[in-house]
Design goal:
Elements lengths: L1 E7 L9 H26 L2 H22 L2 H5 L4 H35 L5 H12 L5 H14 L10 H7 L24 H11 L19 H4 L2 H5 L5 H19 L2 H12 L2 H9 L4 H14 L4 H12 L4 H17 L1 H25 L1 H8 L1 H4 L5 E2 L4 H4 L9 H21 L7 H6 L7 E2 L7 H20 L11 E7 L1
Parallel strand pairs: 2-3
Antiparallel strand pairs: 1-4
Helix pairs in contact: 1-2, 1-4, 1-23, 4-5, 11-14, 12-23, 14-15, 14-23, 15-17, 16-17, 16-21, 17-18
Length: 488
């Protein structure tokens, strides 16, 4: 199927605005950032890591500009270039995504099994294939599900060494901690050091070395949501994540006006980071993303559905907590105090009901587990400002300056949004993750869901936002817009 974009009048059945086309560019920019970062990390080239961080900053700017309705006026004379560039980006990334899928699912397994493949090439391809396996977060969540179904407290019986051995994981899928033999290691343990620690750990799998994170680091929703599916016989947790993920996208497509759906689907199709995370099964964000998406989109349509989904999101992964203040501000500005309290009650009730049984069982253990991403001594990592430390450019071993900068940014973003929410309600999504750019751990999965949610939100609420920000603007304005049509 070929996606064609044409300028049509506002009376056309399918249309878009210049700023929605910018999301194609945002997807490309974020992908470039992660690719550059990956090469810089593997090849140990600090300059590439810094370039990746600068590229991520550009992504923030493009997303923020895309969320401002006035951008349509500024770029209305550039629509021909925007649509041509968007079409090129879509075509290129769609082809690349297809080729990667074929390579990972067909070519690499065949080459590994082929006796004529050289040993060195087989090792390289095996390493690539290993990247499409569980990481420690998802593998611990899978173990938590198994423990739950066997009547055990998932938080009390977490063991990353046994989990990796049971599910064919490897030493490079763990999260090392700055304790024990790694206390003086900085900025990150070498592959040799991790291998040596792993070789020692598997001698006594029941005892996890203190240098390896082994807690179930997420609230109870991270394993409760998957438990019914595993109970019914779905052993691969990636399938469970994919079910929720596709359900969330289906809801977005359903409520987005028909004439805008193809463009949204096009952006979703070329979001290779999203699909890569689904097939690799290495990202817990796949589980909370659909609920965060529905919570934001349903806010103006079904308050109870929205609040329930937000409650599920915050009881699944802590990253959703960053979105919660902005969601509550938008809820307050939309419905007022009574509905705000009602929505908050639903969110709190879901979090308490899902986590209370485990908190009662061992309050200290439960609290230490869900706060471990913030309290455990982890190494600096990510694509944000911390790149300066992780690359060795800045010699700083304390996380305190980054935590302070993250907190200040978070508070400033909340204050700004509370003041300008009515005028720019759509900006809450990007403001929620801006503080994470300054965090001690600023890994890329924190960022690559936001563009999809933001695009869906402005497509669903575009007319309302225009009326609030541009006097006299709205769906009746006689402005040319860009349409997307499908030609077989």
């Amino acid at each position: 199927m070929l996606i064609c974009m044409n300028i049509k009048s506002p009376d056309s059945k399918i249309y878009s605005t210049p700023r929605t086309l910018l999301f194609f560019y945002a997807v490309l920019i974020l992908l470039l950032s992660t690719v550059i970062f990956s090469f810089g990390f593997v090849l140990n080239i600090p300059a590439l890591l810094i370039v990746a961080t600068m590229t991520l900053l550009i992504w923030f700017v493009v997303i923020f500009i895309s969320l401002l309705p006035r951008t349509d006026i500024i770029l209305q004379n550039q629509m021909h270039r925007l649509k041509r560039g968007a079409l090129i980006i879509f075509s290129a990334l769609f082809v690349i995504g297809f080729l990667v899928a074929v390579m990972v699912s067909i070519i690499i397994p065949h080459a590994i099994q082929n006796r004529n493949t050289s040993r060195d090439l087989r090792q390289l391809l095996t390493g690539v294939q290993r990247d499409y396996g569980y990481n420690d977060g998802t593998i611990l969540s899978k173990q938590a599900v198994e423990n739950l179904l066997h009547g055990k407290n998932p938080y009390a019986h977490a063991n990353i060494i046994e989990a990796l051995l049971d599910y064919n994981g490897t030493y490079d899928r763990v999260t090392p901690l700055r304790v024990g033999s790694f206390y003086d290691v900085f900025p990150y343990p070498t592959e040799t050091q991790l291998q040596q620690l792993w070789d020692k750990a598997i001698q006594t799998p029941s005892t996890v070395p203190p240098e390896i994170e082994s807690k179930v680091c997420y609230p109870a929703g991270s394993f409760l949501l998957s438990a019914p599916f595993v109970f019914l016989g779905i052993s691969d947790i990636r399938i469970v994540y994919a079910i929720f993920f596709l359900a969330g996208l289906a809801y977005a497509v359903w409520i987005i006006p028909k004439k805008k759906r193809l463009l949204f689907i096009g952006v979703a199709l070329i979001s290779l980071e999203l699909w890569n995370s689904i097939f690799s099964g290495g990202e817990m964000g796949n589980l909370y993303f659909p609920f965060l998406l529905i919570a934001w989109l349903a806010l103006n349509r079904n308050l109870w559905l929205s609040a329930i989904c937000m409650g599920i999101a915050v009881t699944t992964k802590q990253t959703a907590w960053f979105f919660l203040p902005f969601y509550l501000i938008l809820l307050f500005k939309t419905y007022g105090t009574k509905k705000l309290l009602a929505g908050m009650s639903v969110i709190v009730m879901i979090f308490v009901v899902t986590n209370l049984p485990f908190a009662i069982g061992d309050l200290r253990l439960w609290f230490a587990s869900i706060t471990s991403p913030m309290t455990d001594l982890m190494f600096p990592n990510g694509m944000g400002l911390i790149t300066l430390v992780a690359s060795g450019v800045v010699k700083l071993r304390s996380s305190l300056p980054f935590t302070a900068l993250e907190a200040v940014t978070f508070i400033a973003a909340i204050v700004w949004y509370f003041k300008y929410c009515r005028r720019y309600p759509q900006t809450g999504l990007i403001l929620a993750i801006l503080p994470l750019f300054f965090a001690w751990r600023s890994i890329f999965p924190y960022f690559f869901y936001v563009d999809i949610i933001a695009l869906a939100y402005i497509m669903v609420n575009e007319a309302d936002v225009l009326q609030k920000t541009l006097p006299g603007a709205g769906p009746s304005d006689n402005k040319p817009e860009i349409s997307v049509s499908a030609v077989k």
